[in-house]
Design brief:
The complex is a heterodimer of chains A (222) and B (488).
Chain A lengths: L2 H4 L2 H20 L3 H4 L11 H12 L14 H7 L34 H9 L1 H4 L18 H15 L11 H23 L2 H8 L5 H11 L2
Helix pairs in contact in A: 4-8, 4-11, 6-9, 6-11, 9-10, 9-11
Chain B lengths: L11 H29 L13 H33 L7 H27 L12 H24 L7 H20 L2 E3 L13 E3 L3 H36 L6 H15 L14 H13 L1 H14 L5 H5 L1 H24 L1 H7 L4 H29 L7 H34 L11 H6 L2 H31 L15
Antiparallel strand pairs in B: 1-2
Helix pairs in contact in B: 1-2, 1-16, 2-3, 2-6, 2-13, 3-4, 4-5, 5-6, 5-7, 6-11, 6-13, 7-9, 8-11, 9-11, 11-13, 11-14, 13-14, 13-16, 14-16
Chain lengths: 222, 488
């Protein structure tokens, strides 16, 4: 029946490729532009929040936590309003996750405080006695990679027209300026709200630990 | 073509991949047992400081078993069987053989880079595509080299018609190439930041919902083109070879192949049910997932019927046991998947342990069993030795089968329990359980799963020992066995 095709590897491969490429074109392309639009009033992440998102990726929170509230009453009761496509417009990559060993975090900023997060990341059992989540004490010591987060902001501004202001510019000098005038004050605010002396002291010395960036990111999830 | 009896096949590259399959199998499954145990006993998170938490190790587990163990198994079987079905030896072309070695070396470098970067938490964070752009580039090179070798061998072939296994290897090559390229489209930040930040960091070309769509188009079809397509290539070669039976139906294999190619790609949307992707895509994902039963079962039934009239081999030959049970697990898994893809079922199943349960009855029962059987079959020909111990193989089979059954049954119960508890309401319509209640209740199931995984790992060690002894100390064979692999 198709025996002639099996003797012609080139045509065979072309055939396979067409058959498998088909679905992607039909399913992904038509909605692409629409799904790229942000909801009204959505601001891009600050560099500190981006650094927090990097901590979220580095310690791989998505292994256990989703950021996607499905449109069921049981979910909106538990986590808040169901998620909208436009809310994710600046999420590169998306961090929906695929497993809830722990609860959803898409609106965690609405119902947890910085000091709750600080206690929780230091020792989850101190706030949730039966928790099986590991402690992430190293986040209190490791310094957040603000440079890479800044590089990301510069890149998405240039390549994808993410609406950042003039404060985001390429180059080391622009980064230093941003770090001192914008990032550090923002971090200081978070550190104060965390009520952890060591963390506060670190930020006051001009160093931002990973936990401050992470909390800034989690606070943003609303 | 008739001169093929005189053809001396060159297994040097195949052998290298056989060893890496065994080594990565041990590493990946050991990490798997560790992280499974961490869920039951959280104290185990603190063995290696920052590098030993469940979250950091989970992608390492998946990547080592997928890209280490499984892909090594796929390359090993390809370098072994492609020569034989095309009736051409790797040794006939110094260039292709050299490229084969080069591909293996680059593969080792990429695998090492993958392990180190994931331990350090350097990740693009997309599931099963965590590697950052420098490694992505390296992987593209490895893949292109594989394509060159594959089509080089095809160009030199003496057997004009491509055997079924070759269809699947070609599809694996093309499918992964397309999916991998599109899903890993990312912009390295160092090129734009004016020298600020880490050189290996990148941002995804897609954002939010689009990123999710592309990622699960990849995530789902990586399962198609790594865990299904090449494994079918393996069973189409090794089951007929080991049993001495002809493939039951050519037409069924045709139907299954083209059906699988067409249908599989549509089904990726079932990972995004009830999410923010448009409803029509979700429904397409559901519908095509159900249709997918047809080509999947087509292949599996074709394989089972290949054993028609020769079922006695099932009791006599452990390799046949592995392969027949693998086909059966393939059927189970490809029935379970579509069930989970039905929207109302998915509302309960998604985000729960039923999903890893489903994955593992597929990969432990189908993928790994096929790779074990193929590795042993190849060992007798490549090392020209008898399999070291039949009884060890038998014991491995039963221990691992028990492990798989414990694994998926416990995860079925865990997943459905959790899914039901999340949505349970009291008489006033209030949620009945706090989230932590739905975690604590899983402890016994997590424990059972860890035990199941441990049994499977023990079987892996038995296999590794058996394989090592076969390669080094098995009784020498004078003549290449035609069908059944000889074993002591």
């Amino acid at each position: 029946m198709f025996h002639w095709l099996e003797k012609n590897p080139f045509l065979f491969s072309v055939g396979v490729f067409i058959v498998i490429a088909f679905a992607g074109l039909v399913e992904i392309l038509p909605n692409f532009a629409e799904a790229s639009r942000p909801i009204k009033g959505l601001k891009p992440y600050t560099v500190l929040q981006l650094a927090g998102k990097e901590v979220y990726k580095k310690d791989n929170c998505i292994a256990c936590h989703s950021q996607l509230i499905r449109p069921f009453k049981s979910e909106t009761d538990r986590y808040g309003k169901y998620s909208l496509s436009g809310e994710y417009a600046y999420d590169r990559p998306f961090l929906w996750g695929s497993k809830r060993t722990g609860p959803d975090l898409h609106r965690v900023g609405n119902y947890r405080t910085p000091d709750w997060h600080a206690n929780h990341m230091w020792d989850p059992k101190s706030v949730v006695p039966d928790s099986i989540m590991p402690a992430y004490k190293h986040q209190f010591k490791n310094v957040a990679d603000m440079k890479t987060a800044y590089a990301e902001a510069v890149t998405v501004k240039k390549v994808f027209n993410t609406p950042y202001g003039d404060e985001i510019q390429p180059g080391k000098a622009a980064f230093e300026k941003y770090y001192k005038t914008i990032a550090l004050p923002e971090a200081l605010k978070i550190a104060k709200a965390m009520k952890n002396k060591d963390v506060l002291a670190m930020v006051q010395q001009g160093k931002i630990p990973e936990i401050v960036a992470l909390v800034a990111y989690l606070e943003r999830l609303k | 073509m008739q001169s093929s009896a005189a053809l001396e096949y060159d297994y040097s590259v195949a052998k290298l991949y056989m060893w890496t399959a065994v080594i990565f199998g041990i590493v990946g499954m050991t990490i798997g047992v560790l992280i499974a145990s961490q869920l039951a006993f959280p104290e185990l998170n603190y063995l290696f400081g920052e590098y030993g938490t469940f979250s950091r190790l989970r992608p390492l587990h998946t990547n080592v078993v997928i890209y280490g163990f499984t892909v090594s198994g796929i390359f090993a079987t390809f370098y072994y069987s492609a020569q034989r079905v095309l009736k051409v030896s790797m040794g006939e072309s110094k260039l292709l053989n050299g490229l084969g070695y080069l591909q293996f070396i680059l593969y080792l470098i990429a695998a090492t880079g993958m392990v180190i970067s994931e331990l350090m938490g350097i990740t693009a964070s997309k599931e099963y595509a965590q590697m950052e752009w420098p490694l992505d580039v390296l992987i593209v090179v490895i893949w292109v080299l594989w394509g060159v070798i594959m089509f080089g061998l095809i160009g030199m072939r003496r057997e004009k018609a491509l055997y079924i296994s070759m269809w699947y290897y070609i599809a694996c090559f093309l499918g992964v190439a397309m999916l991998y390229l599109f899903n890993n489209m990312e912009v390295p930040t160092i090129f734009f930041s004016g020298g600020v930040g880490a050189w290996y960091h990148s941002v995804s070309m897609y954002a939010g919902t689009n990123d999710a769509l592309v990622q699960w188009w990849w995530g789902h079809n990586a399962v198609a083109f790594v865990f299904t397509v090449p494994i079918i290539a393996i069973i189409y070669y090794f089951l007929p070879k080991e049993s001495g039976q002809a493939v039951y139906s050519y037409k069924l294999s045709l139907l299954s192949f083209w059906g699988l190619m067409f249908v599989y790609l549509w089904a990726g949307g079932h990972h995004l049910l009830w999410s923010t992707v448009p409803d029509w895509m979700q429904t397409m994902g559901s519908v095509f997932s159900v249709v997918l039963i047809l080509p999947s079962w087509g292949s599996a039934i074709n394989m089972l019927l290949t054993m028609k009239g020769e079922w006695n081999q099932l009791t006599e030959n452990p390799l046949i046991k592995f392969m027949v049970l693998a086909s059966t697990f393939y059927m189970l898994s490809t029935l379970e998947g579509p069930i989970q893809a039905v929207k109302s079922v998915n509302a309960i199943a998604h985000f729960t342990d039923w999903i890893p349960g489903h994955v593992h009855d597929g990969v432990l029962g189908w993928v790994a069993f096929m790779i074990f059987a193929a590795l042993m079959h190849m060992a007798t020909r490549a090392f020209k030795r008898e399999i070291y111990s039949k009884s060890l193989l038998e014991a491995q089979f039963w221990i691992q089968t028990t492990g798989v059954v414990l694994y998926f049954t416990s995860m079925w119960i865990a997943g459905i329990t959790q899914g039901m508890m999340w949505r349970a309401v009291d008489e006033y319509g209030n949620l009945m359980y706090s989230f932590i209640d739905t975690v604590s209740v899983l402890h016994p199931y997590y424990t059972i799963r860890a035990i199941g995984g441990l049994l499977y790992l023990i079987g892996m060690f038995m296999f590794a020992y058996n394989f090592l002894m076969t390669a080094t100390a098995g009784r020498k064979l004078e003549q290449e066995p035609q069908f059944r692999s000889p074993m002591a």
